[in-house]
Amino acid sequence: MDEAMLRSLTPGVLGVLVRRGADFAAAEDAVQDALVEALRVWPDDPPREPKAWLVTVAWRRFLDVARADAARRRREDLVDEEPAPGPVPETDDTLRLYFLCAHPSLTPSSAVALTLRAVGGLTTRQIARAYLVPEATMAQRISRAKRTVAGVRFDQPGDVATVLRVLYLVFNEGYSGDVDLAAEAIRLTRQLRVAVDHPEVSGLLALMLLHHARRASRTGPDGALVPLADQDRRRWDTGLIAEGVEILQTALSRDRLGEFQAQAAVAALHADAPTAAATDWVQIVEWYDELVRLTASPVARLNRAVAVGEADGPRAGLAALAPLDADLPRYAAVAAYLHERDGDRSTAARLYADAARRATNLAERDHLTRQAARLNTR
Amino acid sequence: MAKYLLLKHYRGGPTPVTDMPMLDRWTPEEVSAHVQYMRDFAARLESTGEFVDSQALSPEGTFVRSDGEGRPPVTDGPFAETKDLIAGWMVIDVDSYERALDLAAELSAAPGQGGEPIHEWLELRPFLTAPPTITE
């Protein structure tokens, strides 16, 4: 039995049931039952059309439960109006699931969990492990999310930007154990790109691929963080980089710039540089200017200050940093870096230690502590 | 087997044995050796089946209490200097209290400046467990 194949079929089947009017939670239960049935029956009797088979079994299961339900009459009316299950049309129902799972009524963490469950076809246990929470906790989070979207109908296209944000959240969660969330996010974004013709979907996919390409070089053998400038560029995945760049170029040629395309452009310029010193910082500053124009995000301004520091010298970088809020995440680290390059080692050391105290993950904290230590002891 | 909590503190606790400066005053190599020691320690306890969980905590903490319904919670502000701050914890599951003491002592001997053990104070707290089920 090909588990990956089953997983790839799940969202489509779920989408058909939801489109036919099944309540999301009930549809999900029915699809799970169909999957269990498939695992039992298929080894001896493989179906000719696996997806159609699953739809038929899941729909029958949904009807069984619906008939037995307290709201029997209402659902039976629904069944009367709907066509009987027949051949499965090749419209992409998965798309509805993306919008359902990224519905604005859900909190980001619920949206992420529901997306992984419904669109990604991951088990609750796998999602729980990836987030290091007990399975029962994750099961509750998912069923609460399902209740939240229970009454939502889909007759208008949702907001692509919201879906992309959810997928980017998944990507940034990294990975642990048997589920690689970054790879999962890439898989889902690829799938979305087939269904939605929007340059920002391509922008996000390119961004993910370009980040992912550097993954092997981002940590040392002892788990310590390796900053971009010190990474072994021979370990970058050139295949992923080439794919990311090509996807980005096609997106950019449509002249509908968005924040993910701009971020991907920055990542592409880094990926393209043979050495850290050969990085085209002037162009990177220009892309950050675009990003600031598009989002007015303080984080984009902070990153822009770093790029300005590289393009025009540390003084210019510090000047770009000056108007920003010192409480921004990573502000102290950026200030420390620019002060060191400007020759002010003691201020830099103090700021690195300050940044270490504010770090939100262990690898980052240890890295910043080492930076402070380096300046304090040399 | 019984579970114990090993607490590392940023400050607070008994007077330190050595007059060790903050981590950022060590050399980067000393910092790395210290971190590696703790990582190896956890890995070894995993292999002996005595490791349960470990987490590091940010030094930024806030005391919060309710100030009655309809009022915002009272916090003590961002001034953390006077608090006994917990730096992180490790939970172990061991056969005896003696074993827990041994492991705590071993963790306390993590290398510091010049590779010398830092002899930091660690707090060891047994977990309270659910009452046993009495079957007649």
TrEMBL record, chain A:
InterPro entries: DUF6596, RNA_pol_sigma70_r2, RNA_pol_sigma70_r4_t2, RNA_pol_sigma_r2, RNA_pol_sigma_r3/r4-like, WH-like_DNA-bd_sf. Residues 97-148 form the RNA polymerase sigma factor 70 region 4 type domain. It comes from Micromonospora robiginosa. Keywords: Sigma factor, Transcription, Transcription regulation. Pfam families: DUF6596, Sigma70_r2, Sigma70_r4_2. Residues 161-251 form the DUF6596 domain. Belongs to the sigma-70 factor family. ECF subfamily. The keyword Transcription regulation applies. Residues 7-68 form the RNA polymerase sigma-70 region domain. The lineage of its organism: Bacteria, Bacillati, Actinomycetota, Actinomycetes, Micromonosporales. GO terms for biological process: DNA-templated transcription initiation. This is Sigma factor. SUPFAM superfamilies: Sigma2 domain of RNA polymerase sigma factors, Sigma3 and sigma4 domains of RNA polymerase sigma factors. GO terms for molecular function: DNA binding; sigma factor activity. The keyword Transcription applies.
UniProtKB/TrEMBL annotation, chain B:
Residues 58-79 are annotated as: Disordered. Gene3D superfamilies: Dimeric alpha+beta barrel (3.30.70.1060). It comes from the Bacteria. Residues 29-109 form the YCII-related domain. It holds the Pfam family YCII. Belongs to the YciI family. PANTHER family: BLL7171 PROTEIN (PTHR35174:SF3), BLL7171 PROTEIN-RELATED (PTHR35174). This is YciI family protein. It comes from Micromonospora robiginosa.
